[in-house]
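Two records follow; treat each independently.
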Amino acid sequence: MIPTPRPPHDNNEEDPTPAVWGFILTLFFFKLIVVGIVFWNMQTFESGVILASTLWYYFPPIVLLVAGPAIFYFRLRKARARRAELQRAEWMLGEQDVTSAAEQRR
């Protein structure tokens, strides 16, 4: 059997990913707003328990969304500190030399 060539891919199609994320974020924020309004109007312990039981599965995605940039930021700070330490060691500079050079640049 001879394989038939595939038709060329139409590159005019838009990527549906932004639309999907927009839809998911709209649902997420709508849920948070509704929960806030319900809790504002019914400020009892029982309503808090019911809202928490219907909202608990939103916390892991929030933690993951916040953890990614936080980890990146702390790793970036660690890498920059290590880079500065290596530069000081390479040029045999002490802490006083580095601070005086930084003050001169200002």
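The next record belongs to a different protein.
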Amino acid sequence: MKRLERTGTTRRVLLVDDNKAGAPARRSALEELGLEVATVVSGADALEQFAAVPFDLVVTDYKMPKMNGIELIAALRALRPNLPVVLLSGFAEAGGLTEASTGANVVLQKGHNECNQLVRTVNRLLFHRAGATRKPATRASAAAAATTATVVTKTIKGL
């Protein structure tokens, strides 16, 4: 996994996920990027944490009790409209969840390749946000990006 280039500060990610099996794997994948990751299990906890700590990006599950991911995204957008948000769902395709219908920058389908997709997506969102200059793509990275494009919904609002 490729690490984010450093700009002198650690980037913070808020991971909102009530899945006891999946959350540790997602957290570990994000920490391998050198990110500081705070994990909460509900939308209410996420809003409380978001008010207390400045985050650079939020990754949220869709299906959670009391407040789903779309409701959380709407609340976060009211507080910080340009915040990059990734929505994860096992129902993304079947439920027709898209960036336009959810307010997320990227919607990812949960599955066997999910952590790799999440790492690439978060890296891209934070890289772009920091305004860093990308290194020229190699054939291998271009092929990986092309493969990812067929799996991940890649429309990013505001780019």
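Discussion point: The longest helix spans residues 114-130. How would you locate this feature using only the token line?
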